[in-house]
Amino acid sequence: MNDKKKLLIDCSEAAYCCDKKQYKEATISEKLKMLLHLVFCKRCRNYSSNNNRLTELIEKSNIKTCTEDEKKVWKEDIKKELKDI
Q1: Are 11 and 43 in contact (CB under 8 A)?
Q2: Closest CA to 14 of 29, 23, 35
Q3: Phi, psi at residue 79, to the nearest 5°?
Q4: pLDDT in tens, 11-70
């Protein structure tokens, strides 16, 4: 019976594992527990599906982040604008 408790997780833990999987931080045992939970839980299957879809869309979008230098320039510009008000 103790082995069953190790394999079965609740919805909040399944969601946490799903999020970790999205960022490639989940361990193999977490992935297996999540997959076992998804077999039984429709709500978590939907959550996982939406999470996977979101990850795919973000990867396709080719979002670029700003460099630290660009951020500094913007902060300085904002400060100058605020002083003029």
Answers
A1: yes
A2: 35
A3: -60, -40
A4: 999 999 999 998 889 999 999 999 999 999 999 999 999 999 998 998 899 888 889 999
Cα separation, 8 vs 4, whole angstroms: 6
* Cα Rg of the chain, angstroms: 21
Q: Is the per-residue pLDDT at 84 higher than 80?
A: no
Short-list 48, 39, 36, 45, CA closest to 6: 36
Distance of CA 49 to CAs 33, 52, 69, 73, Å?
A: 16, 5, 37, 40
